[in-house]
Specification:
The protein is of the alpha+beta class and about 300 residues long. It has helices at about 10-25, 35-55, 60-80, 85-90, 175-180, 200-215, 225-235, 245-250, 260-280, 285-300, and strands at about 95-105, 115-125, 135-140, 155-165, 185-190, 195. It has 3 domains: about 15-80, no CATH class; about 85-195, OB fold (Dihydrolipoamide Acetyltransferase, E2P) (Beta Barrel), CATH 2.40.50; about 200-300, no CATH class.
Length: about 300
């Protein structure tokens, strides 16, 4: 009986992953000369192709180096830089900022307060903030009437800029901000000015989110606030829960159900895929329907 020839085990994506990890780790500690890195990475990619055609093992070294340089440049452009420890030891100070809202963490509550994450566009010199830095902000919209801040809004305001302390409790909210590259908190002390409203797509996503909330509230019994659990669990809006509900889920260790995670995304993606199969949508067309719906779900 002829012996079957075993195919060699190959994992080409592993080489790409190694270069990406090296580049992003380097970008978190040292900014890259972006133009030089990308140019040199392009040359190395050409050398990698040349060596691969000739059967030389040097293609792997060239490929990983090119990938690392590309990820280093990408990380420099996208990842927030960690400020100097001397800056983080400075006391809170007044700052005049222009920033673009990236994410709303807490919707406007009964006191008119809203909080979120934003990217700095411009800042005064004494703030020591660079354009592109991320901040956690709180603004009071009580006197703003019907003004609502959405993702993509550009705000100008004067307030108190406070560095997040270096030593924090591991499970604290400030530690979470540190983990995602945020080192400053900004609280508005004067009336803010809306320089640019959010784009049409961001407004469309907000309208769709409001429609989702309306559908989840349909048929809910009155005076039981059960609809808030559906909204908090399926849309990740924990602010909809009252204090009693938060305490109940926190005591039972199930508060993680109300955070948008891979489990939520997987369940929603499976439901959408099964629904498209049920209505007999062709497989070649269903990704073009399902993926936009999933994207709308992930964009509050």
């Amino acid at each position: 009986m002829p012996r079957q020839r075993q195919m060699p085990t190959r994992a080409p994506a592993l080489f790409l992953l190694v270069g990406m990890v090296l580049g992003l780790c380097l970008a978190s500690t040292q900014p890259a000369p972006v133009a030089f890195s990308l140019t040199f990475a392009l040359f190395l990619a050409g050398f990698s192709y040349y060596f691969a055609k000739r059967g030389s093992s040097l293609w792997l070294l060239s490929f990983i180096t090119a990938t690392s340089l590309t990820a280093w440049a990408y990380g420099t452009l996208r990842l927030p830089m960690t400020p100097s420890s001397d800056f983080l030891k400075l006391p809170a100070r007044e700052a005049f900022l222009q920033f673009e809202v990236e994410r709303i963490l807490q919707e406007r509550n009964q006191y008119g307060r809203l909080s979120g994450i934003a990217n700095v566009i411009d800042a005064n010199t004494t703030s020591r903030l660079q354009p592109g830095a991320k901040i956690f902000f709180r603004v009071d919209l009580e006197e703003a009437g019907t003004v609502h801040l959405l993702r993509g809004s550009v705000i100008q305001a004067t307030g108190v800029l406070s560095p997040i302390p270096l030593k924090l409790e591991p499970d604290s909210f400030e530690a979470y901000l540190k983990d995602i590259g945020i080192h400053y908190q900004f609280e508005r002390t004067s009336e803010h000015q809306l320089l640019r409203p959010p784009g049409s797509f961001d407004q469309f996503c907000q309208r769709m989110n409001l429609h989702f909330q309306h559908y989840l509230r349909l048929g809910a019994p009155e005076k039981h606030e059960l609809d808030s659990i559906y909204i908090a669990m399926l849309l990740g809006r924990k602010a909809e829960l009252n204090n009693d509900q938060k305490d109940r889920f926190r005591m039972t260790g199930t508060m993680h159900f109300f955070a948008i995670s891979g489990l939520h995304i997987g369940v929603i993606a499976t439901v959408i895929a099964q629904f498209l199969i049920l209505v007999r949508v062709p497989r070649k067309i269903s990704p073009f329907i399902g993926l936009p719906l999933l994207y709308l779900y992930l964009n509050p």
